[in-house]
C-alpha cells in the first residue's frame, strides 16, 4: 500500500546555500533531477511548493494574537515541501541523499495523515466490487 510523505526542506535562513542567484541554476537542476528520479523509480509527486523566507510569515496564535515574521530565530527554516506517494521509503531516502548531497539543507520525511480521503474511498469501492 502506498503512503504519502511530506518531504520538508529545512534550508538555512540566511540564504546560504538556498536560492542565491549564483546557485539558482544548480539548485533548480537538482530539483529537476529529483523529480525525474522520483518518477523513474516508482514514486509519485502529488504536490509541493517552494516557500518564501520565514520572515514573510504571519503567525496566528488563537486567543493571543497575530505576529509578523518567524516565531523563533532558527538557523534553518522550512523552505519548501514535496508531497510524494511511495511504497518504498528507503528508496525515497536514497534519492534525496544522492540528488541533494552537499546542498547544506536537511530533508525531513514524514507520513501524512489520511482522514479517509481518496485512498479510503478507493479501498471501500474495491472491497464493494469484490463482494
Detailed description of the structure:
This protein is an alpha+beta fold. 31% of the residues lie in helices and 32% in strands. The chain contains three helices and six strands, in the order E-H-E-E-E-E-H-E-H. The strands form two sheets. It has a four-stranded antiparallel β-sheet with strand order 2-5-1-6, covered by helices on one side. A two-stranded antiparallel ribbon has the order 3-4.
| Strand arrangement across the biggest beta sheet | 2-5-1-6
User: What low-confidence regions span 5 or more consecutive residues with pLDDT below 50?
Assistant: none
Outline, from the CA principal axes? flat
Order of helices and strands: EHEEEEHEH
Judged by helices, strands and strand pairing, the structural class is alpha+beta
Largest sheet report: 4 strands, antiparallel
Integer-rounded radius of gyration:
18 Å
| End-to-end Cα distance | 20 Å
Averaged pLDDT, please? 83
Strand content: 25-35%
State the share of residues found in helices, binned by percent.
Answer: 25-40%
SS elements, strand count? 6
Number of helices: 3
Defining traits:
6 strands, 3 helices, 131 residues, alpha+beta, two-stranded antiparallel sheet, 31% helix
What is shown here, in short?
The chain is an alpha+beta fold and 131 residues long. The chain has helices spanning 24-40, 89-99, 118-130, and strands spanning 3-12, 44-50, 58-61, 65-68, 76-86, 106-111.
Amino acid at each position: 500500500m502506498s503512503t504519502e510523505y511530506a518531504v520538508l526542506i529545512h534550508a538555512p535562513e540566511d540564504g546560504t546555500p538556498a536560492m542565491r542567484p549564483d546557485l539558482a541554476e544548480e539548485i533548480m537542476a537538482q530539483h529537476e533531477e529529483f523529480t525525474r528520479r522520483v518518477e523513474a523509480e516508482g514514486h509519485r509527486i502529488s504536490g509541493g511548493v517552494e516557500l518564501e523566507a520565514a520572515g514573510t510569515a504571519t503567525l496566528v496564535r488563537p486567543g493571543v494574537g497575530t505576529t509578523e515574521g518567524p516565531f523563533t530565530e532558527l538557523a534553518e527554516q522550512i523552505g519548501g515541501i514535496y508531497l510524494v506517494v511511495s511504497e518504498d521509503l528507503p528508496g525515497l531516502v536514497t534519492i534525496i541523499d544522492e540528488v541533494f548531497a552537499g546542498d547544506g539543507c536537511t530533508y525531513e520525511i514524514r507520513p501524512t495523515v489520511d482522514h479517509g480521503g481518496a485512498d479510503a474511498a478507493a479501498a471501500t469501492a474495491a472491497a464493494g466490487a469484490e463482494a
